[in-house]
Structure formats: C-alpha cells, structure tokens
Design a protein that fits this description.
Oligomer: heterodimer
Structural class of chain B: alpha/beta
Distance between the termini of chain B: 43 Å
Low-confidence stretches of chain A: 7-16
CATH topology of the largest domain in chain B: Rossmann fold
Mean pLDDT of chain B: 85
Helix content of chain A: 55-70%
Strand content of chain A: 5-15%
Mean pLDDT of chain A: 80
Number of domains of chain B: 2
Order of helices and strands of chain B: EHEHEHEHEHHHHH
Strand order of the largest sheet of chain B: 2-1-3-4-5
Largest sheet of chain B: 5 strands, parallel
CATH superfamily of the largest domain in chain A: Histidine kinase-like ATPase, C-terminal domain
Radius of gyration of chain B: 23 Å
CATH topology of the largest domain in chain A: Heat Shock Protein 90
Low-confidence stretches of chain B: none
Structural class of chain A: alpha+beta
Number of strands of chain A: 7
Number of helices of chain B: 9
Number of strands of chain B: 5
Shape of chain B: elongated
Radius of gyration of chain A: 40 Å
Helix content of chain B: 55-70%
CATH architecture of the largest domain in chain A: 2-Layer Sandwich
Chain lengths: ~300, ~210
C-alpha cells in the first residue's frame, strides 16, 4: 500500500511538475526557436552579404577575365600580324624565286631568237617574221615577270635602335601558349648591359619566331626533355649574338649546306622558305645567321647583329 | 667596227643562257667564252686583248659579287656587266659601287646587252692603254741606275736641282748630269712630263 501511496504521492508532483514543465518547456522552446530564428536571420544576413560579395567578386573575376582575354586578343592579334608578314614574306620570296627560274629560259629564248634573226640578215622573210613573234611573246612574258617583281618589291627595313632583351621577351610572349601546349620549357639568358642594336623590329621578331618554331618542330617527336634556351650576349666590339638552342633531333650533317636554300625543307608541309628568308633578313642587317649541332642533343641557331653606332 | 679581237666572257650556271648569249654575240661578230662556274673563269687564261665579262649574280660556287672582289684582288681588270634573274636593288648598288658597267635584269634585249658590252670594251681598251703605259714607265724606271732613281724620286717630289745637290752633298753639275740622263731614259720631254710619269708609277708617294 504504502508503496502505492508513495508511488501516487511521488507521481503527483511529477504530474504537476509535468504540467509546469510543459508550459515552461513551451517557453523554453519558443525561446529556443526565437534564438534559432535570430541565428538564422544573422546567418541569412551573412549569407546575403556573402552572396553579394560573391557576386561582386564574380563580377570582378569576370572583368579580370575580360581584361585577360583582351590581352590574349592583343597577343593573338600581334601573332596574326607577324604570321601575315611572314606569309607575305614567304610568298614574295617564293614568287621572286619563281620569277628567277622563269627568267633563265626567257633570257635564252630571247637571245636565241635575236641571234637567229641576225644570222638570217635579209633572207627568209617568213622565218624572220616567226622569230619576231617569238621575241614579242618572250617580251610579253618578261613584262609579266617585271610587274610581279614591282608588286613584290620589298619594303626597306625600318632600322631603329633596338633592345635585344626586350625584342626577345616580346617574341617569347607570342609563342608562350604554343610552348605550354607542346610542353616545351623555355629558358631565357640575356646578358645585362647589352648595347642596343640597329634593326627592324618586325623583321628580327620574324627571324626569332622562325628559329623558335623550328626548334618546336625539331622536338615534336623526341621523348626526352623539351627545352629551348634563348640567349643573347655581346659577341665582340661591334656585334651582339643571339642563340636559339634546343634539345631536339638536331640537323643531319648532309642537310646543313642546303639548309638556307630556297625550297629546302624537312617538314611534310613546309615551303622551305623560313630559313632562307631569315638569313636574308639577318644579312640585310649586316649580320650572319649560322647553325651548329649541339655536342649533346639538338641544334643551335645563332645570329649576330651589329650594335647601334648612331645616336651615340 | 672590227670586233674579231674583242672577247666577251660569259659566266652563268644556266647552260642554255650561256649558249644563247654566245650565239647572239657571235652574230654580232664578238668572240665569246662561256663558263658555268666562277672558279673556271678565274682559272682560265685571260690574254691581253680587250674584253669584258657578262656575269650572273647567282652561281653555284661563289656568287658574282664575290668573283668581282676576287678579280679586284688579282688585279684582273676586266669590266663586268652583271645579269640577274632577281631584281635585287642592294646588290645592284654594291656591284655598281665596285665598278660594274651595268646591271641587267633578265631577260634583257640584245640592244641593252650590246650597249653595255660596247661601253665595257671601250672602258677596257682605255684601261689596257693605261696599264700598258704604266708598264712602259716601269720598264724605263728599271733602266735607271740607283743614283739616277734617287734623283728621279727627288725631282718627282718637286725638289730643285740645287736642293737635291745640297741634300746629297754633291755638286749642282753632277745632279744636272744625272737629271739629264733620267729625262733621257724616261723619254720625258719636260719636267712636268717626268713628274706625270712618276705619279703614274706611284713614285710620288714613296
């Protein structure tokens, strides 16, 4: 009994307690909800401002991206321009070689006909008439060649004082993407206090690009590390020397003498004009463009360029 | 015009161009000799008749401009007419500066070629005359005794007999005798002529 009572007694306050607890609990819960709501509000606010910031920074990123793209575009544009110059240069050189090849037989035909005409003196009027036609047509073809030559007359290079270091780094920027795509490591070594040289910036850039892209091609199928070292230093009191050295396949000895001639190429889609144009550019600058196979691997192309002696 | 003795050398790596030019020149009465390589031309004998050289710029061994330099180094004074299939202006300038007669872009008419050849041969005749005269003067100089040569040099420098006598420490009479003999051996009628001979032989500077 007592046990029951006791239990009843014990239960009662429990119930009472429970009643009280229920309402207290509600309050507590309400408070809790309130607090949670407040927290949520804060979180919400934070989130909102976070989002705002995010949007802002995204906008910034977007703007950055645009400016990067602009820079990219500039580089691409420069590259395109240079490529265009190179292509036009190649075409010009190609046409001029063609004109040369054609002018040889035309010279012979003209001289043969004029000799024959003269030897006939006043005999065989019919044959002399035919010879006249041959001469006239030969001269018609000559006129075509002369027009072509006039059309392709090279613009004289614009000679200005040039900082070789700047020239090299400007050129490197243009082929950096290419280097990354081809996983080529580009190294630069430019001596300090290099004197200015005298030259045409676009043409010299064209030469450097040609040499570097040749190096790229020479390393296409090699398994070892792909490295290009572009270096510039003073050669002697009158010249600066620029080296483009690669770890590619090198140049077979028997190809070296033919390397700088027109139409010589080892590439399936090459025109064989790049190096011959490069050499003529460097020679027009009063320098020399040469090649040497490296002792270990690859080849080094190097050119000299006279130091700017004017404006000193 | 008698051209039998005038030789035109032709150096061009295109055999057809060589043959055609040679035929054309033959029809005009010139004797010609053709070479495919610059070195063959340098190696051949160049008799002392009036001649000229029709030279292609691009050759398999050394190019035309280098041949021009090599000829200058060997004192081979044969006037050059350059012919080229490339209308190359810087090369033209270089060649003309180094004394070329003309620079003809291929193909050229016979008139242009003949004009140039005639000018070149005329020039070569003058050059040959000049060279012959210098050779004659030098032959005469060789006949002078050491003492006479010395007096000749002093006279060439514009010194008077008196000054020479003083410098040599000899009598005026002796110098006058030497001087008379110099004039005689050198075939000079006047002192001016003698000085002119000295100039031609390059004696004034020494």
């Amino acid at each position: 009994m007592t046990n029951i009572k006791q239990s009843k007694l014990k239960r009662k306050p429990r119930i009472l307690k429970g009643k009280r607890t229920r309402s207290g609990e509600r309050v507590r819960l309400e408070g809790l909800v309130q607090r949670q709501a407040d927290k949520l509000k804060i979180k919400n606010r934070q989130l909102r401002s976070g989002i705002k910031k995010q949007i802002k920074s995204e906008k910034q990123i977007h703007i950055d991206a645009i400016s990067i793209r602009k820079k990219d575009l500039e580089i691409i544009k420069q590259r395109e321009e240079l490529l265009h110059v190179t292509r036009v240069g190649k075409l010009a050189e190609f046409v001029s070689s063609l004109a040369h090849e054609i002018s040889q037989p035309l010279t012979a035909i003209l001289s043969y006909s004029q000799a024959a005409e003269r030897m006939l003196a006043d005999r065989e009027p019919k044959i002399r008439e035919i010879l006249r036609y041959i001469i006239d047509d030969d001269q018609r073809a000559t006129a075509v060649i002369q027009r072509l030559r006039a059309l392709l007359k090279k613009n004289a290079p614009e000679m200005k004082p040039i900082d070789v270091g700047v020239l090299i780094s400007d050129t490197i920027v243009l082929i950096l993407t290419d280097a990354i795509i081809r996983s080529v490591l580009l190294k630069l070594k430019i001596d300090r206090d290099l004197p200015l040289v005298r030259g045409d910036r676009i043409q010299l850039q064209q030469v450097l690009l040609n040499l570097i892209s040749n190096s790229f091609d020479a390393m296409n199928s090699i398994s070892g590390p792909r490295e290009i070292l572009v270096s510039a230093s003073r050669k002697d009191k009158d010249n600066v020397i620029v080296n483009v050295s690669d770890s590619g396949c090198g140049i077979p000895a028997q190809s070296i003498p033919k390397l700088f001639t027109h139409f010589f190429t080892s590439k399936p889609d090459g025109l064989g004009m790049g190096l011959s144009i490069s050499r003529s550019i460097i020679e027009a600058h009063g320098g020399r463009l040469e090649i040497e196979n490296n002792s270990k691997r690859g080849a080094t192309f190097y050119f000299t360029i006279p130091i700017n002696k004017r404006d000193l | 015009m008698n051209r039998r003795r005038d030789t035109v050398y032709i150096v061009d790596d295109d055999i057809s161009v060589c043959r055609a030019l040679s035929l054309l020149l033959k029809s005009h009465g010139f004797k010609s000799q053709t070479f495919m390589r610059a070195s063959d031309f340098l190696a051949c004998k160049h008799p002392k008749s009036s001649s000229c050289l029709v030279l292609d710029i691009r050759l398999p061994d050394i190019d035309g401009l280098a041949l021009q330099d090599a000829m200058a180094a060997r004192k081979l004074t044969i006037p050059i007419i350059f012919i080229t299939g490339h209308g190359d202006i810087p090369m033209t300038v270089r060649a003309m500066k180094a004394g070329a007669i003309d620079f003809l872009p291929k193909p050229f008419t016979e008139k242009k070629l003949l004009d140039a050849i005639n000018r070149a041969i005329e020039k070569n005749k003058t050059q040959n005359k000049e060279e012959a005269e210098i050779a004659r003067i030098q032959r005469r100089i060789k006949t002078l005794s050491p003492r006479e040569l010395e007096v000749f040099c002093f006279v060439a420098k514009g010194m008077l007999s008196k000054q020479i006598a003083f410098k040599r420490g000899t009598s005026l009479q002796t110098i006058k005798v030497h001087r008379g003999r110099v004039m005689q051996k050198m075939h000079a009628k006047t002192v001016t002529e003698l000085i002119h001979f000295a100039e031609k032989a390059g004696i004034t500077t020494t």
